[in-house]
Structures are given as C-alpha cells and as structure tokens.
C-alpha cells in the first residue's frame, strides 16, 4: 500500500453491552451480576436483546431465546428494555461525537462511524480523538465504549471489537494489509456460517488464503460479494461515512404468548401496533405511502402483505384503514399467528398534497 496515498481517518465507536450497562448504571443492585435485557423467559417468544459481560461468560448472546439463556444461567436477572432511557443516552453520545465531527453515520443506538479526516478542533490525530470521546462517555455517562481506528470503515469496525470492553485499537495504513491477511474468513463482512464452511472446505481459512485468488475466481466462487472480498483483503474499502442515512421504512411488531387464531383476535392487536407506529412516525416527521403487515405463523414461516396509498400518510386512522383491509384479505384462514408487525415505507422526499386516501392492494 502506497504510504503517500491519501487516507481517511475513520473511527468506529461501539458501546459495551449497551442496554445492560445502562441498566447496571441506573440500578446499582445489578452491578457485577449476570443481567439479561429482553423478553422474560416465562413469556413465549422472548429473546435476548443484550446481556451483561457477567452473563456472557455463561454463553448468553443477543438474539438467543430467553428460555435458553435462563437454562445456561439460572441465576441471571431478566429485565425488559427501557428504550426511552437508551435513546436519551444515545442522544448524549451523539452530542459528544458532534464536538469533533459532523460526519457521523449511526448504525444503531449504540454504534456509529465517524470520519475525522478533518476534525472540528484541529486535533489531527484520530487516535487522540477516539481517546477523548471514550473519556467523555466515561466521565459524563459512566459508561464504557470500545473504539476502532483505521483508514476505512471495514477495518475500523473489526478493530473496535478486538479488545472489548473499553477497548482502543488502532490499525494504521502500514498495518492494514498485514492485518487483513491474518484475519479469519468468518470475520469478513458478509461471510456467514455457510460461506465460511464452504471457504474452509476449499482450504481458505484466512485473508492470506483469499488473497491467492484472482478477482475473477473470487466472483466465480462467491458471486458479487467475491469482488468485495478481493478488494478488502487488499485493504481497499472506499465506502464513505454517510451522515444522512435515508430511512427506508419504520415498523413495529409484537410476539404473543398465545397464538392468535382468528381475525377478530388479531384486529385489536393490530390497532395497538398501528397506534405505536403512528406515534413513531409523527415524532420523526415521516409520512409514507406503503403500509405493510407482517404475519409470522406458529411454524416460524411468515408472509407480508402491503397496500399503497396515492398520498403520504402517518395518521393512525389512515394507517388503520390499510391494516384492516390487509387483514381481511390476507391468506391466514386456519393459521396460528405468533407475531404481528405493521410498517410504513415509501416515504416522501418533499411535502405532497393532501389528497383523499385511496388504497390499492398489491
């Protein structure tokens, strides 16, 4: 890699066990104990949103069924998420980021990319900026974050995960290619279990192994992602930090302790979801045209059905009109429903006219 080449300065900040850490901060009795934030194990369909590091020692992980988590650690404390509290903390963290740069790409409440190639305070060193951000988060919020610093998003994200919790990992331009060569294939973005198993069966265990393949071979073996693997193993990732990530859809859903078996029992649940969705949309100032309802069956298969309006909507009544039409036409007769979801998409870019709502099933 040419040392004289221009390089971005990218930081990836990832809060440590975010939801659980906020709970342990706000409720000292939870400190030092295995804590699971998510659905309760006695409820059906509960899953782990996040787990404290004390709970992770027992093998508890995000997206794991809560009942499984309880079996792994019977003494674990289970609490429901408090999203309002997490959003408030996230806003404070974002304010800290903005002290140094406005080029921020949030990935979720607890992680973001920052481009500090040119920082507001003319500090110049991305490593120093990452240290200052971590210190501010610790002193102002009593929480810890891990930071990865490098020349591109891919390497910075991997680096932030290397020394958790409270980690700080810098991978400079001269080290990027060597770092990528030593990286296990399952750590590459987009390489899931199936692809990783396939790669290993081909004798491809590390980035160095992948580097032996030509770009044509990469695409031949792995399709479109092959081109990305070919570039990233050479330290090439030209994706920019995107400060304005366009919202494609907003949705809410709920899993039920007992299966819903009739449209009459689903209607009030959908009304509750619709009201929640409308409030979220109105807080965000979003209006859209396409209403979607998701039905997940007892066997975990799912279907979605959508309606399109000829004007932009975000009021409960308008969304509800579409939801009821979808419910009445959905092929769910005789089905046992364990989850319902309602979403809105196809958002307006400019203010449109307030035309009469007309719905078209598709």
UniProtKB/TrEMBL annotation:
GO-annotated molecular function: DNA-directed DNA polymerase activity
Entry keyword set: Cytoplasm, DNA damage, DNA repair, DNA replication, DNA-binding, DNA-directed DNA polymerase, Magnesium, Metal-binding, Mutator protein, Nucleotidyltransferase, Transferase
NCBIfam families, sorted: PRK02406.1, PRK14133.1
Function: Poorly processive, error-prone DNA polymerase involved in untargeted mutagenesis. Copies undamaged DNA at stalled replication forks, which arise in vivo from mismatched or misaligned primer ends. These misaligned primers can be extended by PolIV. Exhibits no 3'-5' exonuclease (proofreading) activity. May be involved in translesional synthesis, in conjunction with the beta clamp from PolIII.
Name of the featured protein: DNA polymerase IV
PROSITE patterns tied to this protein: UMUC
Species in which this protein is naturally found: Niabella yanshanensis
Subcellular compartments: Cytoplasm
Catalytic residue list: 111
EC number(s) given by UniProt: 2.7.7.7
Pfam families (UniProt xref): IMS, IMS_C
Enzyme class: transferase
Family note: Belongs to the DNA polymerase type-Y family.
Binding site for Mg(2+): 14, 110
Primary location group: cytoplasm
Site (Substrate discrimination): 19
Domain UmuC: 10-192
Stored InterPro entries: DNA/RNA_pol_sf, DNA_pol_Y-fam_lit_finger_sf, DNA_pol_Y-fam_little_finger, DNA_polymerase-Y, DNApol_IV, Rev_trsase/Diguanyl_cyclase, UmuC
Cofactor requirement: Mg(2+)
Catalytic activity: DNA(n) + a 2'-deoxyribonucleoside 5'-triphosphate = DNA(n+1) + diphosphate
Subunit structure as annotated in this protein's UniProt entry: Monomer.
């Amino acid at each position: 890699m040419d040392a004289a080449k221009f390089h971005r300065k990218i930081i990836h900040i990832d809060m440590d066990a975010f939801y659980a850490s906020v709970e342990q901060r706000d409720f000292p009795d939870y400190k030092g104990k295995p804590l699971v934030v998510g659905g309760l194990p006695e409820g059906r369909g509960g899953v782990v949103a996040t787990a404290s590091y004390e709970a992770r020692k027992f093998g508890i992980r995000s997206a794991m069924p809560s009942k499984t988590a309880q079996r792994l650690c019977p003494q674990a404390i289970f609490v429901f998420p408090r999203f309002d509290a997490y959003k408030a903390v996230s806003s404070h963290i974002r304010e800290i980021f903005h002290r140094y740069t406005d080029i921020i790409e949030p990935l979720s409440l607890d992680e973001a990319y920052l481009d500090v190639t040119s920082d507001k305070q003319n500090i110049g060193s991305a490593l120093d900026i990452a240290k200052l951000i971590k210190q501010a988060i610790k002193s102002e919020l009593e929480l810890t974050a891990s930071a990865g610093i490098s020349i591109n998003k891919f390497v910075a994200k991997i680096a932030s995960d290397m020394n958790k919790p409270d980690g700080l990992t810098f991978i400079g331009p001269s080290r990027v290619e060597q770092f990528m060569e030593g990286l296990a294939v399952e750590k590459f973005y987009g390489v899931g279990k199936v692809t990783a198993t396939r790669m290993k069966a081909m004798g491809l265990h590390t980035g160095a192994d992948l580097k032996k393949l030509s770009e044509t071979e990469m695409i031949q073996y792995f399709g479109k992602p092959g081109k990305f693997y070919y570039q990233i193993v050479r330290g090439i990732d030209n994706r920019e930090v995107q400060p304005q990530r366009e919202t494609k859809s907003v949705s809410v859903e709920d899993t039920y302790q007992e299966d819903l078996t009739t449209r009459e029992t689903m209607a009030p649940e959908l009304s509750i979801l619709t009201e929640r969705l409308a409030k979220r949309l109105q807080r965000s100032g979003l209006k859209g045209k396409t209403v979607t309802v998701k039905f997940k069956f007892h066997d975990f298969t799912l279907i979605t059905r959508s309606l399109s309006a000829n004007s932009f909507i975000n009021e409960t009544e308008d969304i509800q009109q579409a939801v009821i039409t979808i419910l009445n036409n959905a092929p769910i007769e005789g089905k046992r429903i364990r989850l319902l979801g309602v979403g809105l998409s196809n958002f307006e870019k400019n203010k449109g006219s307030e035309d009469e709502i007309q719905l078209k099933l598709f």
